[in-house]
């Protein structure tokens, strides 16, 4: 599990808006052009590489200089269009740290706000699974872009995106930022289980703490409050009790199963109980709408130690395969 953190704070209306988004399992990817650093996407164009590239392309076209110049100009125009495109993508900024005093001061209303911990892999496992994840590079100088990188971006845009949307001045390195890049800005839904913990600031009010716990009750979230470490400039997270420990589990469900599932044959009959338990486990998944299939995996496990798969319709309308090992099933409470 990779833990990443999001700091939030502001006036009471802003805090309530952010908590409401958390209760709806939504995050807001801001337009790249709206981020708080005016130096975002500042780059140095290696025009010499474009001129040389133009000459090479002109030579390939028959050695005509004017064709080379036109090719060079088109490549620069293409780069300009890509830069323009990046300014319209959505960015969800996260940090690798929950204990940086500057982040608490700058992004959590002077320690009066809160910080959310996400499991990054789980965060991307629902509707954000196809998005680009970039760790910000911190540099003394703006990055240089060449024709070679532009041409390479036709196969993979990762390196070009890194320079355009995930490179900042070294003065920002305390943020240890990770960026989730999405196609369009706006609200995006995530699997609620990605939200692992909330850290309340050292100056956070009890009113905010209780409201957060009430809105997020039943989700198994851990709660902490930051505390100043004596005789140091450090912060530490102290666990605090959930005020709603007996709340009903969030999104608890028992999805229906298609008729004829599981199908029993000579391979599955020896594991009939295990296969049935695998189905029961899957239909209790919070985003399972209907179980469609269940069998032994052909790519995982062995005949003596099989892995079972269950296919179900997910809440976003996409099919989902989940895999369970023999040991995992036999340890489950439903196997008893």
Automatic annotation (TrEMBL):
Pfam families: DUF2971. InterPro entries: DUF2971 (IPR021352). This is DUF2971 domain-containing protein. The lineage of its organism: Bacteria, Pseudomonadati, Pseudomonadota, Gammaproteobacteria, Pseudomonadales.
């Amino acid at each position: 599990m990779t833990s990443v953190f999001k700091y939030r704070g502001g006036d009471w209306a802003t805090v309530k808006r952010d908590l409401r988004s958390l209760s709806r399992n939504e995050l807001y990817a801001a337009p790249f052009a709206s981020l708080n650093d005016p130096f975002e996407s500042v780059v140095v164009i290696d025009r010499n590489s474009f001129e040389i590239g133009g000459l090479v392309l002109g030579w390939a076209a028959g050695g005509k200089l004017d064709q080379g110049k036109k090719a060079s100009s088109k490549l620069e125009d293409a780069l300009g269009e890509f830069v323009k495109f990046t300014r319209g993508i959505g960015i969800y900024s996260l940090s690798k740290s929950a204990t940086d005093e500057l982040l608490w001061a700058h992004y959590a209303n002077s320690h009066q706000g809160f910080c959310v911990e996400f499991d990054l892999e789980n965060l991307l496992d629902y509707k954000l699974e196809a998005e680009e994840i970039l760790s910000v590079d911190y540099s003394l100088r703006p990055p240089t872009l060449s024709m070679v990188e532009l041409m390479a971006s036709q196969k993979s845009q990762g390196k070009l995106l890194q320079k355009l949307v995930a490179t900042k001045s070294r003065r920002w390195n305390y943020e240890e930022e990770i960026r989730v890049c999405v196609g369009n800005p706006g609200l995006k839904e995530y699997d609620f289980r990605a939200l692992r913990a909330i850290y309340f600031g050292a100056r956070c009010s009890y009113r905010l703490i209780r409201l957060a716990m009430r809105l997020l009750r039943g989700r198994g979230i851990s709660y902490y409050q930051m505390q100043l470490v004596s005789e140091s400039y450090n912060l530490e997270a102290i666990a605090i009790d959930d005020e709603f420990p007996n709340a009903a589990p969030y999104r608890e469900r028992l999805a229906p199963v298609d008729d004829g599932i599981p199908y029993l044959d000579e391979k599955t009959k020896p594991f009939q109980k295990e296969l049935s338990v695998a189905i029961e486990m899957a239909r209790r998944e919070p985003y399972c709408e209907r179980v469609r299939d269940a069998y032994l995996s052909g790519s995982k496990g062995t005949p003596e130690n099989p892995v079972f798969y269950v296919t179900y319709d997910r809440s976003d309308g996409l099919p989902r395969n989940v895999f369970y090992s023999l040991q995992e099933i036999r340890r489950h409470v439903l196997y008893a």
